[in-house]
Amino acid sequence: MKTGIYIFLRFFIKIALHVYYKKIIVQGRENIPLNQPVILVANHQNALIDPLVVAAHISIRPYFLTRAAVFKNPIAAYLLDLVQMLPVYRVLDGFSTIPQNQRTFQKTNQVLQQNGSVLIFAEGNHSIVRNIRPLSKGFTRMAYGALAANPELKPVIVPVGIQYSAHKKSGSSAKISIGKPIPVDPDPSQAVKLTRQVQTALKSLVVD
């Protein structure tokens, strides 16, 4: 039942996006591996449009990490759950909410253990300024958490560049550029190096 609703919503969202945008270009779909744990790391320029435009135009069905504030409305929370969005609590939401992130990371760990995929906007917030901002450590935490639970896993990071010709203008264009997968070194001490690799890859995919 939930799968059927997801497919319907994805189809509806795709139609709506193509009505609003004159052109949506997707490059590099072949770079997303199948039957392997995948963490998609994307830049974040256009609020809730970013996860929707990605979800509607790739073949896999990733879980999305998005800011918890959008889940406050019960109806919105129900719909977001249907399209596999998970809440991420930030300091802005109050220090008392931060421990709730543990449930989200438990869920993403479960998804990766089953060779599923997760998409995270690692800049932490959105901005229409065309640059790649410093990346948070959330995606490396997920990768090394999955490896700690199962050292036999082979997770990869796939950078996803999203950009718009005019963020708030109907009839403009959007482009999704999917980069080559980056293997996760099983040594957790390489987390900082991995973050730099992903940041460099993202900068090569968008106008920075």
Describe this structure in words.
- By secondary structure, the chain is of the alpha/beta class.
- It is 36% helix and 20% strand.
- The chain is built from six helices and eight strands, in the order αββαβαβαβαβββα.
- Strands 1, 2, 3, 4, 5, 6, 7 and 8 form an eight-stranded mixed β-sheet that branches.
- The longest helix is centred in the N-terminal third of the chain and has 19 residues.
- The protein is globular and about 45 Å long.
- The termini are far apart.
Q: What is shown here, in short?
A:
It contains six helices and eight strands.
List keywords for this structure.
globular; 6 helices; eight-stranded mixed beta sheet; 208 residues; 8 strands; alpha/beta
Break the fold down into its secondary structure elements and pairings.
Blueprint: H1 2-20, E1 23-27, E2 38-42, H2 49-55, E3 63-67, H3 74-82, E4 85-88, H4 101-113, E5 117-121, H5 138-149, E6 156-164, E7 173-178, E8 182-183, H6 191-205
Parallel strand pairs: 1-7, 2-5, 2-6, 3-4, 3-5
Antiparallel strand pairs: 6-7, 6-8
Helix pairs in contact: 4-5
Structural class: alpha/beta
Stretches where pLDDT is under 50 for at least 5 consecutive residues are none
- Global geometry: globular
Q: With helices defined by DSSP (H or I, 4 residues minimum), what is the helix count?
A: 6
Assembly form of the protein: single chain
Helix content: 25-40%
Mean pLDDT across every amino acid position: 90
Sheet-strand content, in percent, reads 15-25%
Largest sheet: 8 strands, mixed
Radius of gyration: 16 Å
Termini separation comes to 42 Å
Number of β-strand runs: 8
Query: From N to C, what is the helix and strand string?
Result: HEEHEHEHEHEEEH
